[in-house]
Amino acid sequence: MIFSVQRFIEDYLERRRIDDVDDYAISAAYAFERVGGTAPEQDVAQGLRRIRTSLFRRNGGLNRTDFERQLARALKRRFPKKKDTELSSFVGGLNSSRRRIRLRRRSISSLLTEFARAVESRAVDAFWSSRKKGKWRAKPESVAQGLLAVFAKAVVRSDGLVLREFASGIGYVDVGVSFGGPLHLIELKILSGQLVGATQLGHYMRLEQRNSGWLVLVDVRKPARRSAIPPTLSLAQGVIRTLVIDANPVPPHSA
Q1: Which residue range(s) make up the domain with 68?
Q2: Do 8 and 126 reside in the same domain of the chain?
Q3: Residue 83: is its pLDDT beyond 60?
Q4: Which of 37, 81, 145, 153 is least enclosed, having the fewest CB within 10 Å?
Q5: Contact between residue 126 and residue 143 where contact means Cβ atoms under 8 Å apart
Q6: Bridge-partner residues for 188, per DSSP?
Q7: How does DSSP classify residue 112?
Q8: Which residues contact 5 (CB under 8 A, 6 or more apart)?
């Protein structure tokens, strides 16, 4: 998504014969991603206002306020608001998650812990067409990616950056989250048998020069067939921290 936005802005500048002197298109694409495609046009313009750039100084006669309003309008037309269907999975909203994260030191650990709590309490059924019959929904890993991306954007809002399926080498990292510093790499896997995903995440860690990453495992195994998952995994590339989400809990009346 972010690369599509970047290309659109590059073409927009070229059509208006504006010289992109300091990779403004990249900065503007990230600003649009931070604000979110569902934000109103004026919020998008305000997000563009925060960019430090010499674009307007080097392109004489370009009024920054007018330009940002026009670009915000063009972005909203090209990338219209889409209903976040995954967000509806979190019945009752995410206000309690936001409050708890604000009370703690903001970190990727607290964000993912709250995500696990939110899924286990309100979104388990998002993975199943029939949990009783053991039938998953189509592409359950994509469901997990969507849930995490929507959750992180709803909780982090404009205070950070959330990327979904961004390119790394010839592959794609499921989700990336930044709080203004390094980008945290997150891989999501469905845990139906043996542990998977560590080698893939280690590959991305090497490419992105990160010595840590998060492997989020949606556990759909039957309780009687579960084995413990270590909290950390050591690879040549660094340390992977694991987080297990129970998506196949024992019904209370059966416990």
Answers
A1: 2-78
A2: no
A3: no
A4: 81
A5: yes
A6: 216
A7: H
A8: 28, 29, 32, 33, 75, 79
